Amino acid sequence: MSQISKSIFNKKIIMLTVSPQEFSTNFINYLDKIDNGLELQMQRSKNKVCKVVHVFEDDTLMSKEEYFAMIERGIQNIKEGKGKKYSLEELRIRMGL
Q: Fewer CB within 10 Å of terminal CB in the chain, N or C?
């Protein structure tokens, strides 16, 4: 089991890597930690890793195609003058950082 701590915009995120057996043995304990913000990775084999994260109400699941189509629409909107400029501080405030 290994633990990595990373900071994104002054928010500390803990990522833990465990084996599937360890996750299975302590299933409820890990789910509680995930609910509280832990990011968990399961190392299945040398080249196979699964990530388990909490899904929040405002999380959106979309396909890669939908994601890139959304980016393309955004780029087109900016080209058409429909975008809005924000300072870095304004972005931080809007994102709650």
A: N
